[in-house]
Amino acid sequence: MKRFLYSVLVVLLCASCDSLLDLEPKNGVTFEHYFTTEQDLEAVVIQMHGNLRTALTGVTQQEFMGLRVDVVKQGSYINKIRGLNTDYLLNVTNQQQWKTYYNTLAIVDLFFDNYKKAKDVAPERVRFYCGQGEFVKAMCYFYLVRMWGDAVITKGSNYIDKYAKSPASVVLDTAIHAALRAYDMLPKFSGLKNSNNKALTSKQYGCKGSAAALLAHLYAWKAHVVGGQEDLKEAEKWASKLIEEKYRDEVGVYTLAENPEEVCAEVMHRKSAESIFELEINYQDASTYSVFLPAYSMIGAPIVKTEEKMDIKDKDFGITIAGVNSLFPAGDARREAYFYHLDDPEWQEAGLAYLYKWRYARYGASVAGEVWLKGMDVNRVIFRLADMYLLRAECRVKMNDPAGAKADLNVIRDRAEAKLWPAEGDSGDLQYDIFKEREKELLYEGHRYYDVVRNGYWKTELQGGFNDLSVEDVKDGALYLPVPQTAFSQNDLMIQNTFWASKMK
Questions:
Q1: pLDDT tens-digit profile of 373-408?
Q2: What is the pTM of this model?
Q3: Which CATH number applies to 7-250+443-503: 1.20.58.220, 3.20.10.10, 1.25.40.390, 2.60.40.10?
């Protein structure tokens, strides 16, 4: 991999704007005389976040692998993904996602190679912008290591030699170090300010809370990769900083929504007190209408405004009402909040559930006069407080603290009006029941595949080709994506994951 970063497109925003929605590049800028003002630093940081949003809103193949559906049409692309079809997994989507993360890291490297050129910028503001850069770097490496395992660690914008991949453990350590620096440099969410000293209200910016949530996930994933109890303790610690009141002065205030209906109407909308990190989505951008969840064909609104609810039976894939009932026991309020009118005879006849976790559909007329879904007027939530409770519960049970794990699990169940653990229908295996609770609570939010892998449930919880994988296949990288072919261009140091290399012979 070679990088020749002589120039980059940056956004020059109005000083009063704190939105991350308007990130289309306005002009090309070379850097001989750039990076000299605070506004220059701010513009590049905003571009970083715009690129990160592009990367994170790309629906990953692994999200589809872990997607909870029980009706899939013959020949559907989801069958190809779950079948571990090598050609399909090497398609343009995989290539583009790999490229987008490294394009984002290129901007981060460019920033850190040049930010010291800035004159007359207060030290605390320099720390703020550097903290944003470290946060974006950590997010990129976190997603790269979960998706591809071993990955390239870049060495600056002026480095032009070829790159080899680094082991997953090293990539994780790189991400952790960046996230720790971000946590140290960044303020609480309430302290975020732009160059004009005006409050930033977007939860896409890095802050102590989002850095803490990222660290909790990073350490939990490292515990899976390396197998260390110390990493579980660190994951528990960082999740606790977001949960426990004694840390609020340090990290900021995050509180659970009152009930599942509020989760749908407020948390999944934007900027709730439960949300820790979320991506700004502009529903007017036609390219974004599918990114707020992995299964846009199951959204809680018709694609065409006049589409009948019964038409859901014609979707490529979906979840049956029976499947919903098996997932959510009687009395669990998430059943009614997350899905639309399950007990209505019309729905019973169709047999498929209509997802209603995301609300606020916006429509626009097409050339033919039909009124099509333009977008969902919502942000995409990446980390929220319920996730932290259940991640901490997972870590605690693995550290032989069943009482603490049970307490965290029951906080989320109590909110959902579900029976507390242990209850009828539970397996009795606390770790597995916590995993299932994450599936229920975070349904279609993009966590399930990684939850499966982190807990070692790939053989029983995933469908298609996963049933044929051996333990050796998994050690050889079968649960990661194949490195896209474009990464091998003019780089003889790049090697394919062992499992996928064997499939390509």
A1: 777 788 889 999 999 999 999 999 999 999 999 999
A2: 0.92
A3: 1.25.40.390
